[in-house]
Please model this.
Amino acid sequence: MGKIILTGDRPTGRLHLGHFVGSLKRRVELQNSGEFEKIFIMIADAQALTDNADNPEKIRQNIIEVALDYLSAGLDPEKVTIFIQSQVPELCELAFYYMNLVTVQRLQRNPTVKQEIQLRGFSEGDDDENQNKKGTPVGFFTYPISQASDITAFRATTVPVGVDQAPMIEQTREIVHKFNSVYGETLVTPEMLLPENAACLRLPGTDGKAKMSKSLGNCIYLSDTSKEIKKKVNSMYTDPEHLQITDPGHVEGNVVFTYLDAFCNDEHFAKYLPEYENLEAMKDHYRRGGLGDGTCKKFLFNIMEEFLQPMRERRAIYEQNIPQVYEILKKGCEVARAEAAKTLADVRKAMQIDYFDDAELIAEHTKKYQK
Ligand code: TRP
Model:
């Protein structure tokens, strides 16, 4: 059996550098490696609705943004299937059956769900009783189960994601194991694929906060203009103790250096900053003192422009062909649906709920009542 990829993103905004280094860049490389039999990239609108039930317009507007970001990053619709989650209703049915294999207590232990409940301010409240305390929507609470259907529906062997998704993959593996042991070997156990580079595992925001996030306003978007990138790079958090160029500086916790860790290679030095052989030499100089933040930021800007500029150009072309982008998505949904339907048929058979395809069942009951 060939290797199959499934992964995706929630369409709650444009994609940013965190998405790019966490998973998108890898997807393009994997697509071009030719190592995979099939690749499915999903725009997870149904999952986005689990905590945006009152804002469907936001999701509706961002599906096209995410699709444009995918295409501009280099995902090729000839090689990957890009589709929209809600257009594959088979996924809901799978999730409904998987729900019987997961306990409330297990979901409550999922670290990502736990953290997100905190972050979103879902307290113990009940909407009906107290308007100020909003409770956790059941759909949100159970989204790891829905994510297990996304992954298993496509028989994914490989799920390239950021590290925050690790608990979801773990939970999917448990569901697969449980399903297969109860109903017989049916589902494929997926492996998670994390970024290799530590700086890419969790890219901090431009303000130095632990995570790049739209709500914190510390993102660099893949679709930002050159001018916006320059402004954001120039206002990046560096080392507050590095006041004079001659002062010794810290590279740990210094966002410019974290981004350099994520993005730069030795060729970039030869091209843009030949005074240093590599990042280690540059860091040494910064630590000793004598290297200014301006030089570091200019270097980072040049490196980022090198991969962002071609994306901008591709985006501009697709932006002038929006009906074509919708057509790509529509085709993708058809392909995805056919694939998910196959798995659903296997699941129904394994669970013995394929009554009308089960000739033995009719024979058995005929015999039972025959006089
Ligand atoms: N939870 C993922 C995110 O927030 C999106 C997602 C939904 C996903 N279903 C998936 C990722 C299945 C990988 C596999 O970005």
About this structure: The pocket of tryptophan is lined by residues 6-10, 44, 47, 147, 150-151, 159, 161, 165 (CB under 6 Å). The two ends are 49 Å apart (CA to CA). The chain has 17 helices and five strands. The beta strands are 4-9, 38-43, 81-84, 158-160, 191-193.
